[in-house]
Amino acid sequence: MATIISGKELSAELKAEMARQVAEFPAEYGRVPHLAVILVGDNPASVSYVTGKAKAAAEVGIRNTTIRRPADIAEAELLALIAELNADAAVDGILVQLPLPKHIDENKVIAAIDKSKDVDGFHPLNVASLWQKQPCVLPCTPKGIMKMLERAGVEVAGKRAVVIGRSNIVGLPVAKLLLDANATVTIAHSRTANLAEVTRGAEILVVAIGRPKFVTADMVAEGAVVIDVGVNRDPESGKLCGDVDFAAVEPKASVLTPVPGGVGPMTITCLMENTIECFLAKAERR
Ligand code: NAP
Q1: For site-directed labelling of 163, which of 63, 81, 181, 269 has its Cα 20 to 30 A away?
Q2: Atom of ligand 1 nearest to the CA of 243
Q3: Which pLDDT band holds residue 102 (cuts at 50, 70, 90)?
């Protein structure tokens, strides 16, 4: 049976540590870190993510401002809001909740955020720094995954890692972090031939595709470490589920992450960590 890594528990511990750290900031720096979150429209999933971020910020003692704008906001107006936040010395982190309405160019919006306030780690200069092994703000979900592997005592160096999914926010950056940790990495995707054969070769399998219970027991090697990033609705039960068929894979894997309560909470926790890092980097530049 697999050891289950609870992202919820690990997050609670990390947030408690950060809360102790942030409590010292007013005496040392005169204020606490400030995260500005922009929510465009009222997509229920986005509203719920933004609410989760505000709740985590409150737990850690980070100041959070959620700025809501209507779904029909003009792109220029959104860019002007970002420019205002970039220039505001009292704002340390800026996050624009994605996805944005179709009439807005997401890449343009992400690139408009000051690199040093890009707490999501999506800015092209942060991405470039990641791929050049330069100091940067790491994207939250991949960072959280690496922390979970560390917590579970998984030795990454020398292992065969397979990542299913090649998105900019999860698949590609987590593959890079695994590579930096000296795994031998394969990135699989929707055009991968004989996917099950590829995934059966994985000692560490990270799944980020967005398909409920897609990874079945026959796709997983005995003793593999399996990280499930997916957040889906189970079409049968209507409940949240991952990309991995948890019940079927659990007896085979050595380590497994649950959904919910796995990678999701770690993503939000790493956002808090990134906000603190941006705050401290700014304090040092003064
Ligand atoms: P995405 O941008 O839609 O990318 C999905 C990737 O999966 C693509 O690279 C795609 O391949 C691949 N894929 C799709 N169907 C496949 C198949 N049948 N076989 C093999 N590969 C397949 O998704 P994402 O943003 O990376 O998110 C993935 C999942 O993680 C979603 O469920 C999302 O909700 C979840 N997520 C969770 C968190 C968290 O904090 N827990 C954070 C971010 C995302 P192609 O490139 O060939 O199309």
Answers
A1: 269
A2: 32
A3: very high
